[in-house]
TrEMBL record:
UniProt-recorded name of the protein: Flagellar hook-basal body complex protein FliE
Organism from which the protein derives: Seohaeicola nanhaiensis
Gene that produces this protein: fliE
A UniProt-annotated Pfam family: FliE
Entry annotated with the keyword Isomerase: no
UniProt keyword list: Bacterial flagellum, Cell projection, Cilium, Flagellum
Similarity annotation: Belongs to the FliE family.
């Protein structure tokens, strides 16, 4: 008989998403001296790269699931990670657009 898991979400995925949220919110602990020179543009580029990687991984797991190479739980976990990534990316885009619009309204 197959073992039934009591949770849908992988603890590692939740931990990874939580860690990524610190990068997106800018509330991460003080960076090491190696990253002390990181600019806002580098942070945004890194977040976008991580989001693209998560999307590619979720797509690969979904394709693998269609070919019976991944379990249903793995597909669901990848889909949840993808959904979370898309929500964060959209929220981040909205904040950037709002900030740009606010700057454009400033008098010269």
């Amino acid at each position: 008989m197959a073992e039934i898991s009591t949770t849908i979400v992988n603890g590692g995925a939740v931990t990874g998403a939580y860690r990524n949220s610190f990068n997106l919110k800018g509330t991460q602990p003080l960076p090491d001296t190696e990253k002390a020179g990181s600019s806002f543009a580098e942070m945004v580029r890194e977040a976008a790269t991580d989001a693209a990687r998560t999307m590619r991984e979720a797509d690969a797991v979904a394709r693998s699931g269609l070919a019976d190479g991944a379990t249903t739980q793995e597909v669901v976990q990848a889909t949840i990670a993808l959904e979370s990534t898309v929500k964060v990316a959209v929220a981040m885009r909205d904040k950037l657009v709002a900030a740009y619009q606010e700057i454009m309204r400033m008098p010269i």
